[in-house]
Queue: 3 jobs
Job 1
Amino acid sequence: MDRLRHSLSAVGADAILVSHLPNIQYLCGFTGSAGLLFVEPHSSTLYTDSRYTFQARQEVSDAHVLIVKGGLMRAAGEKLRSSRGRRRVAYSASQVTVAQRQALDKAAGNKVRWVDDGGLVEKLRAVKDQDELERMAAAAALISEAFNKVVRLIRAGASELELAAEIEYQIKQEGGSGPSFETIVASGPRSAWAHARPTAKPLRKSELVVLDQGAILRGYCSDMTRTVFVGRAPARIRRLYQAVLRALEAGKEAIRPGVAAGAVDAAARRSLRRAGLARYFTHSTGHGLGLEIHEMPRLGKGDKTVLQEGMVVTVEPGVYLEGIGGIRIEDEVVVTANGAIDLTSAPRDFLEL
């Protein structure tokens, strides 16, 4: 909260209205589904409703809790209307609906000049402290172990849905609160769908299977993808897998403090280009993660965000060939002074099951 206050001057604001729930959780600890946090130079107020009276009392730190009726935006706007002089208040337009903005303006009157917050909270969240890194390492270890257990069940006849359900069961068995996102299990030609949802389709011999999974543990997400083959793989599939694995390692090797996020994407893409596969790589190389599965930075083409020590990112190159299938290998790593350190640990060797 103090770091946020110190950064307000960078966007020309004297206060900030935080509406995105993960940002509110990061700043004051509140995990309810209805909240609005108003941060001023010397105080902070969390607006929520009566459903969260007891929860807020237990969770919230460094903010006064105000239980309101008649809408959170209206209550925050009325506080602004009662303030002396005109306030310059930062907010994130992408995280406020048109209706919410209208409610704010109606309640606040002409007492507010709204300014873009420039992603101030997201920038703070991008660099993890030691407690966050410990939580994320534990979440990564959990999903790695879940995969190691589920891989024994991958065989012809098992359905995509069965395997996805087993992954999510293992997450909760090991103490996770649930998956970080809808678990992906895609087999055969469907494995070429980068974000395929699992179906009742049974796995068959001589098929690729992509498993993209993540766990939430103590509030923080993990993310890992592995690709396996049912049966004995032909030489072409083995070559494709090794090319993706080399691209994964090239991306990791490019990671260090001071490097632009886009340079990591470029390194992975160069590796696939040398193998003649760049045109089959159809998404960015990775993304940050933490309280949410997708956070700053984005490891995409030309992204100029500078990597910093303490950031946690994924590296996930892939190739997707229509009618044949897809191969994606993804690890979660932390940026350190010495480069990328793996948090996910499940084997990366090509598994023929």
Job 2
Amino acid sequence: MTDPVHRAEADILKYLLAHQDARDTVEGIEKWWLPQSQPYRKADIEAALRDLEQLDLIRVWQSASALPIFGQGTADRGALESHLHTLE
């Protein structure tokens, strides 16, 4: 997979499958969720998060600091795994 947005989607889904209750900002996702060996542009991460939100695989909350917080939405583990398989 060479498309950085799809790679970011896959890495985000892998993280959420391993850490179901994880919640973080774009900056936190970049620092903690994504492999440091595979640097991503912020725009690619944001595009990946938008795609996953449109598929109802993640949810967005507004924090007190006005930065959006991302985490697993109402989709079950099977839906996350299914979409991950389409990306690999």
Job 3
Amino acid sequence: MADELPIPDYDQLPLTELRHRIRSLDEGQLRGLFDHEEAHGNRIPVLEVLHARLRELTHGAEPSSGDPANAPGVAHTPHGSAVNEATAADPAAPLPRGRT
């Protein structure tokens, strides 16, 4: 499924880069990333960023130009991604409120 994501190397992107890459995605693509994140890494800071961008789009923001697939690749770490079920947030925990 990771091959079907609109952003190459999504699971290895640092949060700062992810913020920029998601700006060109439409609402459907963002919802797909949100679902993927909840099912796999479930990283609260990433979910917050995706949720904030979804909120912007539903309130009239437009995706920016550019294609996230053309962005420079991510250098892989020698230990791979630290995202796995053991490091995932508790799925029952609500997202914190008041942060964008």
